[in-house]
Amino acid sequence: LKPIVARTIVEIQQAPSSKNSLEELHEVCLENCRKLLGSAFREVWDDKFTPSEKSSKDSPLKEIPYSLKDNIVTQRGLTCAGSTMLAEYKSPFDASCHSVLRDAGAYCVGKTNMDEFSMGTTGATCAFANLESPWKARYSPGGSSSGAAISVATGCCIFSLGSDSGGSIRQPAAHNGVLGVKPTYGRISRYGLIAMCSSTDTIGLCTRHAKDARLILEALGCRDQRDLSTETVGPKKRLLGTPDIHGLVFGIPNTIDQYCEGEVLQSFHEARKCLERLGVRFQEIDFCPFENSLTAYKILSAAESFSNLARYDGVRFGQPLSQHESFNEAVTQLRTENFGYSVRERITLGAHVLAHPKIYASATSFIELLRVECEQLYAEVNGFFLPTVPALAKPLTAYIDNHKLAAQEDLFLAFSNLLGTPSIAFPIGMSHGLPQSAQLCAPQWQEGLLLQVIEAFQQESDFHTQIATLEEIQQ
Amino acid sequence: MSFDFEDIKPLLALARVRFSDRELQRLVATCDRFTESVNGLEQHVKTSNDDGRICSEESNFALTLMATPRDPVANGAAIENQVPILVHNQLHPLHSDSKKRKS
After folding, report:
1. Global pTM?
2. CA gyration radius for chain A?
3. How many CB pairs under 8 A join A and B?
């Protein structure tokens, strides 16, 4: 019998004595959470589960524990976004996604640590914790939703909500051996998500099973008047896949070999063969938007971060200003002391981009080109299949002052954010004790199709049920 | 274009942040790499333009597969407590004007 945290939500809910299963799940998760307080977790909410007044008794998410990335605001506790700038920030309202889950009967076990304002790919820019892989001590857990992915990988909860602006859920999901879903831009309300790059910011999730991801997306996907980018058509219809995955065709970009490590390619092609046995077909496609997508994302995120983070001035948000002769000087001192290097670097680049409209225009022109190219490709294939990250996780020290290594982490991920299309990373193997991952991408609102393929893959493999031991983190 | 400290000074004033000397050296190197990659992107866009690969505004709106109908009234609304829609989001594929798309 699988450990309780590795079972699907349906398996837990439909167990012969589901009440006992849910109590066991609650105890196991909270015990694991407490061990990670101060590392993956910024806060653990360990009181006994109390259902929301609105929660339905028949909800499939009833009494299912989840965690929240620390840039999703909650009235309970603090919301710090990994920055000392917000070290004492208490939100006056709950994010929509948190309210929806509580109304569906699920409960939050705590807030997970993250890279400062979602700017990072290793968890190293978090102001409050030294985050590391639960699979190998002192190795990168990925970022920026580092704590979210770790919390699922270590059995602290069944799923975790995070944010993905340029790969921030799928990349840590890949390095932690869990499923990472970046849904279509507009499926899940961003109301209550601390903004970084508004054009690409997407709330998504980490979990183990594709079947669970479907249930969670169905619960979360709804129109929200407070986020006007949310969809208007019922989400359940859109999560339907096809009756059969036989005959689905996925394109594999013909350039991935030049970017990937040999071991990554080996696992990737083994996963491809497994899917071929299940009836999925693959064809090579001429598609190489990766480096330009990353540049376009950097341009957008720099410009939008500059705007979005202007509010942290000690007046509207942020730590109080100290006494100073000039107001500007006081604000500058506050921001210099409370923003880490990565954040200051990003907003300085944003000032540069906004001073040169030509740069911003080149990014938007590129996005149009990318849309046309993908539109043409999606006429031939149902989606794309490629590795999530080109390399295995490395020791944290390897990323210091190595911009190339850090930059390649989001190489295969940013283009989906620019298009607002869904992309799902899922575990496909282990090498040297570290997880391997592949991703499926599709046109907008096709998450159901992707989940269907991954569900079939997960019936043939057990990588997604492996639980990372907490010993690596506690060393 | 190669950056130096004089190029960066006005940016720091806009961003309202400061850097240590060591951080400044790192920042200059980052700005140089950023400029290099932006040049590559601009060149790619220019080449595609010359090839006629950038489609007209009308044909962009015909890309229904990846486009989503939006409420044009709500799109333009900016009510307090809503997620802000930035001006430049008009250029984002998901915030194109739906009337134009229909045509």
Report:
1. 0.90
2. 21
3. 168
